[in-house]
Amino acid sequence: MAEDFNTESMLDMYLFENTQLLEQLQETVLEQKDADCFDEDSINEIFRTMHTIKGSSGIMMFDNITAVSHKLEDVFFYLRESHPDNVPHVELVEHVLEVEDFISNEMEKIRSGDPADGDASNIIADLDKFLEKIKNGGAAAEGKEAPVNVHEEPKHFYIAPVATSASRFYKIFITFFPETEMANVHAYKTVYALKEIAEDILYSPEDILTDEKSGETIIKEGFRILLQAQCTEEEVRNLIGVGYDIEKVEVYECDADQFLLGFDFGEDQAPAAQQIDLESSVEVIEAASAAKEEASKEGAKEEKKEEPKIVPGDFVIQSKEPGKQKKLAKDKPKGEKASFISVNVSKMDQLMDLIGELVISESVVLQSSDLKVPGLNLDNFNKAAAQLASISTDLQNVIMSMRMVPLTNTFQKMNRIVFDVSRKLGKNIEFVMVGETTEVDKNIIEHISDPLMHLVRNAVDHGIETDEERMAKGKTEKGKVTLSARTEAGKVWICVEDNGTGLDREKILAKARKQGILDDNKPDAAYTDKEVYQFITLPGFSTNEQVTEYSGRGVGMDVVVQNIQAIGGALEIESTPGFGSIMSLKIPLTLAIIDGIVMEVGSSSFVMETGVIKQFIRVKEDMMIHEPNGDEFVMIRGDCFPVIRLGRWYGLDEYQESVEDGVMLILEVEDKKICLLVDKLVGEQEIVVKPIPSYIKKVKGLSGCTQLGDGSIALILDAPGLVE
Fold it and tell me: Are the C-beta atoms of residues 371 and 384 closer than 8 Å to each other?
């Protein structure tokens, strides 16, 4: 049967499940990296995780992943069974993370279509040494030698029964969540896990690997297992486990006669009270149980052994006809509960694109020139249009909420970086996460992962001093990196804060002057701290005198700024010399649909995001200030703002020359304000952001384009690009 097993259909499920398990594993380990040891729940969880990965990798025939996960499972099997003392915790954490890295790398190869050919021999050898060390250094519980976690690859799906006096018998009923995909594969994984302890194992449906339709049967009727093994009920439950695929596990212990009766007996062999039709209801089973109890009492005079009571959830099997597949009595229908389904990201992107097209089509309908004919009664149309707009908005909100994912996994990756880098640099650093449940569009997360990683590395390597330097400065607390997230006015703020040495203003200015960045006619004192700190984001700029593995080459911060600006975000830097720095990323919640103001300059249309517009104002010519070099400023309520004439900025053929004939928009980006002069405002509407060709991206101040209701194209203005 194993030869007929097709691994191709399981590959996506294998990668998805194990990726989730590895993320949970890393989170569990990093949460307790600073503790003295793993608690009992964590040890059991890590053991189960590695056991599951080992089983699924064995099915998929990824031998190196199976071997390394089995070896780490051995370590935690010993920890679970023997409770040794003096286990070097940090070393154990490093071993677990090393295994996690290896498996993740192998899975990445598999995902890319390459063979999983990584060599795990060194990792396995290190784990063997570690296991030997804790065995020699720790005392086993109650002075007993811990059992050995032996893995024997089963050659057949059925193991012949070899009952002994220590054998115990179980009837197991597993209920899967209704939305579970490929339930037959999940069922086989359970069987595969139980085989290591099984002396005899039978299951129904039997053809779970060769018959794809068996998955539907399992979802509908459940999965039944008869197990003979030398283990406790708790050990059986621990091996099966309840997760995102398994909703409920019922385990009932029985005697050898009941075990043999379960899957193989004829009608003439079974007592009348036990002959229950396969389609019987629970009430019928209970009635049969009561009848069996009465029969038991009558027979107690001759035989004191009482038959076990059949309870709802247990099952008795009756053969319909020889040679036909055996069925199981159905259970009571289970109540509805919240369910989840995994969807390919590409389908979500496609759905988002369709929603965008719907928004554009809605604008085309509502702004049609046919509706502007004088004398038309559009009351009913306007009511229907208002309802359509409401439904469209609700639909957008639902789709957007489906794309929103928490920053938890991204933050956990940063936790791992702090742990690795601090260990290599010999720094004692604490990592704190705040607001990690903040949700952001998935595409945004993909854009910020690398910039965030660089900022965190800089904080550990560049920002926080060594333990000796901190002691010399009188700092009693250990180094600390805080990663926080919050939402504010449609934006997400992600801050990387450290309590290290901070930025040295004078050192940065000296470096900037050396590289010719500073204006010769402008004194150093004229630069604000914020302007000085922004110098570190320039290409090739670094104040680190010694190049390390993580910093000092002058590359990285400029890439951070470019990546953040590419999604309409910005980087703000604050620092207190001697006390630390704060790097803040200000990014949009989503990239797909925004609220914008449509404006016109001549025959061209432009869109500006509503959030950066602070005010609309009409100005007089006497409010304008004209500089000899061509720069213009406007005085508004005693404040002076630089002016950009959008038509002149882009060299358009037609635009209003007089400021009194146009409209002035006051834009604010990162505490900087400018005034933008346009011919007229069209109105506010939802804007579907579309990418623009690469050659147009070279034009400063543009971030995208959109289609308006009349079918024309409008360019979306990039406020940070105009303000700079």
Answer: no
